[in-house]
Amino acid sequence: MPSMPIKPGFIIRTILIFAVVYVPVLVSWIVLKQYYTWPVACSGAGLAAMTLDADIDACTKVGQGIKVLFSRYLVTPAGVFPAHSGIIIDDNQYTFNVPISLAMLIVTAMILRITWSAWTKALAALVIGHLMYVYACVLNQLESYSIPAATKEIVSSPSIAIQLFWDFCHTMLIRFEPFLILSVLIFFHLANTAKRRNGTGQKRQ
Questions:
Q1: C-alpha 46, offset from chain centre
Q2: Which residues contact 158 (CB under 8 A, 6 or more apart)?
Q3: Where does the pLDDT of residue 144 fall: very low under 50, low under 70, confident under 90, or very high at 90 and above?
Q4: What CA–CA distance (Å, rounded) separates 130 from 86?
């Protein structure tokens, strides 16, 4: 069955709807961002601290970011040394695409009549992506803990696996976030639609 061509009017109408939706989404995000980034940053930092056997001493809001204070003991050939470090997680580094992502989700939901199940899974994917970014960011920096200058030469640099994970999150995951989240939305929408059709077909049989 030949596919229907996309009419120019549909494209123009979609762009206009996106422009109308984007403005209130952007304004709402500016107001609500601080309430979202604090738990995400502290949760991601907590996961990284658990991975490297460190403790979180404080997690506070500082300007456009979250400052997390860590402490742990480093075991080196020269002995055991207490290490303290403060990491600032910039909110804008991983949330700059959120307004566009949300606007795209809303417009797509309006056009395709997306189910709540697909919508919630797309939002969950958005949050998981941000947690992955914070986790990779903190993990990468904690591997380079600040320690006494006399022992710096014997502390290993970040592992290749952590560096690759951080590069993936920083250069690809966040930058392509709107398209990844939109793909998740459409995938689960199509899956739910196919499931409903199969269920209807089986009932008729």
A1: 15
A2: 140, 143, 144, 166
A3: low
A4: 20
pTM over 0.70: yes
E strand or H helix that includes residue 58: strand 55-62
Q: Kindly report the three-state secondary structure assignment for every residue of 37-54.
A: HHHHHHHHHHHHHHHCCC
The token pair at 187 is 């995938």
* Sheet-wide strand order for 65-76: 55-62, 65-76, 79-90
Provide the token pair at 36.
């979202």
Q: Is the pLDDT of residue 42 over 50?
A: yes
End-to-end CA separation in angstroms for the chain: 25
Q: How far apart are CA 109 and CA 106, in angstroms?
A: 5
Q: What is the mean pLDDT of the chain?
A: 83
pLDDT of residue 123: 94
Tokens matching residue 2: 């030949």
Distance of CA 153 to the CA centre of its chain: 34
Q: How far apart are CA 50 and CA 60, in angstroms?
A: 19
H-helix or E-strand containing 83? strand 79-90
> Of 67-71, 77-81, 158-162, which range is least confident?
77-81
